[in-house]
Write a structure and sequence with these properties.
The structure holds two protein chains of two kinds. By secondary structure, chain A is α/β, with parallel strands linked by helices. In chain A, 35% of the residues lie in helices and 16% in strands. Chain B has two helices and four strands, in the order E-H-E-E-H-E. Chain B has helices at residues 15-19, 50-54; strands at residues 3-5, 25-28, 31-34, 61-63. Classes of the chains: A alpha/beta, B alpha+beta. Chain B: InterPro entries: 4Fe4S_Fe-S-bd (IPR017896), 4Fe4S_Fe_S_CS (IPR017900).
């Protein structure tokens, strides 16, 4: 395990980063593609510059960069059937949930505290817990305060779109270059099953009229953002039997209006959350159903498949949430921003990224266009940095990749309960993990014991730690080659 | 002629505060409170009581 890998671990102290950088510069470059960009071939450079460090807009960036949401906007102007504003719990992780609401000044202090502690931080988002455009004064005050102190932090918001057209000009002025709109329908009759009411121009609307207004405002807002060159991500909640097939239509509409990304997320409808859908027994989709719909949407608006449906006060890399480390009572009254750690980390990532991109390219070339007409679904335990560096028993999620003659691509993630607690594995938990891994052929991790390995085999899932600490794609390329008898085109990283 | 907020049901989302045309709603202690001397039930401003129309929790902004 090289010093570089340690440096990209989430808790790397500055000293090890410095040591690593010194080592890096003296030792020259490990890969011939030094400084090569990870930019996809089909993307224009200006857009890549905007998204390359944004974990929610670039699947590649989400291995390296962290976002934080500040919960300054609790007020909302619509009601969705998958949302209950009364319910909150520190152990829940889903949109609209927060532990504490913040004033813009408290948010400023929190962002600085996080920026000093979490070098991966690149993005500040306001995702409610209500609507960032409706609760506009607090959103704007927060962005103004934070930008003054940390000018290079990217700003983004999440909105239902109803109040969006009123603020597009201000968003452009504030350099907010990423906006997420939640669009669940483009047909008001479907909207009536999702939105019981909206509050618009001083009155409450219900039924078809509510959905009609919401739909028109969403489309107007999207068109206005596109006209100003602001990148848009469209979130859609997949509700089986309500809008699942309809999301194909939504995808078409948003693509026509210039949406950059479409993120289809599964409905979360636990009855304990007290939402309308939770109480009426409306089920969410299974992981494989979600994947099937996402596969159907390929070729339309580009899909985001790495969303973790995080809380409105989440902090950290997409697969983790360090929000509980940064509650108000742990943040001093006076904080000063120190850019050193973020800068050091960025330099390290820039180097690692070039190397990773080259390794990924080689692995993809190995599997691409082969005669072997096989598909492998691989689940990876990772702590970030694009490597297989998490123990099976410590994983709280597995990242899912698909290898086929089309290439190697990230297709989703599976949340699991941590199997190993204090050195002991719980059989009941393992059953849950195996259930979550439905449809997976192989699990890759840094370490796995014989006992869980055997249980997985009995369920038809192979697991190996043979590729521990390799780049994810390199390992999958090698695995695919071994599986289908191909020649490896690259040295392993 | 005034509305009140059922404190136990209020989520402290603040929407009523900035929709209120008379500035009758303020955050006090743990919840939002309507000042009965300032509340006009939106008479002369809107057809419906704004706090009740925007409140996400049913039957929480109600006649006092």
């Amino acid at each position: 395990m090289s010093a570089l890998m340690i440096s990209l671990d989430s808790l790397a102290p500055v000293s090890s980063m410095d040591a690593m950088l010194a080592k890096e510069t003296s030792g020259g470059c490990a890969s011939s593609s030094c400084g090569s960009s990870a930019k996809p071939d089909d993307m224009d450079l200006a857009i890549w510059e905007k998204i390359k460090d944004h974990p929610c807009y670039s699947e590649e960036a989400h291995h390296y960069f962290a976002r934080m949401h500040v919960a300054v906007a609790p007020a909302c102007n619509i009601q969705c059937n998958y949302c209950n504003r009364k319910y909150d719990c520190a152990n829940e992780s889903r949109p609209g949930v927060v532990s504490e609401k913040l004033t813009p000044d408290q948010a400023r202090r929190k962002v600085i505290a996080v920026a000093n502690e979490v070098p991966q931080l690149s993005v500040l988002g306001i995702a409610g817990p209500g609507d960032a455009c409706y609760d506009w004064r607090k959103t704007k005050a927060t962005f103004d305060d934070v930008s003054r102190e940390i000018p290079d932090i990217k700003l983004c918001i999440s909105t239902n779109g109803l109040a969006l057209p009123d603020h597009v000009d201000e968003l452009a002025e504030m350099n907010v270059d990423h906006v997420t709109i939640t669009i669940n329908m483009v047909a008001p009759e479907i909207g009536t099953k999702i939105y019981p009411w909206i509050f618009y121009q001083n009155r409450r609307y219900t039924g078809l009229e509510a959905s009609q207004i919401l739909h028109e405002r969403q489309m107007l807002g999207l068109e206005m953002l596109t006209a100003r060159g602001i990148l848009t991500k469209i979130n859609s909640v997949m509700i089986p039997g309500v809008n699942d097939e309809h999301l194909i239509e939504v995808n078409k509409w948003v693509k026509e209006r210039g949406a950059f990304l479409h993120n289809v997320m599964p409905l979360i409808s636990d009855p304990a959350h007290g939402t309308y859908f939770g109480l009426t027994g409306q089920r969410g989709p299974k992981a494989m159903e979600l994947k099937a719909l996402q596969d159907k949407l390929e070729g339309g608006a580009k899909l985001m498949r790495h969303c973790r449906q995080c809380r409105a006060d989440a902090v950290g890399l997409l697969g983790e949430d360090r929000g509980q480390e940064f509650t108000l009572d742990q943040i001093p009254d006076e904080v000063a921003y120190d850019p050193a750690r973020r800068e050091t980390y960025r330099e390290a990532v820039a180097r690692e990224r070039g190397d990773h991109a080259a390794a990924k390219q080689a692995a993809v070339t190995t599997v691409k266009g082969t005669e072997a007409n096989g598909t492998l679904l691989v689940a990876v335990a990772t702590k970030g940095g694009g490597r297989i560096n998490e123990h099976f028993g410590h994983a709280r999620e597995f990242q899912v990749y698909e290898a086929s003659p089309k290439g190697i691509s990230f297709v989703g993630h599976r949340k699991v309960e941590q199997y190993c607690m204090g050195g002991f594995g719980e059989d009941a938990t393992l059953d849950g993990v195996i259930e979550a891994l439905e449809g997976i052929d192989v699990v890759l991790c840094a370490r796995i014991g014989d006992c869980p390995k055997d249980s997985l085999i009995a369920a038809g899932i192979r697991a190996t730690d043979a590729y521990g600490f390799d780049y994810i794609e390199t390992a999958i390329g090698a695995l695919y080659a071994a599986e289908f008898g191909l020649e490896l085109l690259a040295e392993s990283a | 002629m005034a509305f009140k907020i059922i404190a136990s049901q209020c989520t402290q989302c603040s929407a009523c505060e900035f929709e209120c045309p008379t500035g009758a709603i303020k955050f006090k202690g743990e919840t939002y409170v309507i000042d009965p001397n300032k509340c006009t039930e939106c008479d002369g401003y809107f057809d419906t009581q704004q706090c009740a129309a925007v409140c996400p929790v049913p039957k929480t902004c109600v006649p006092a």
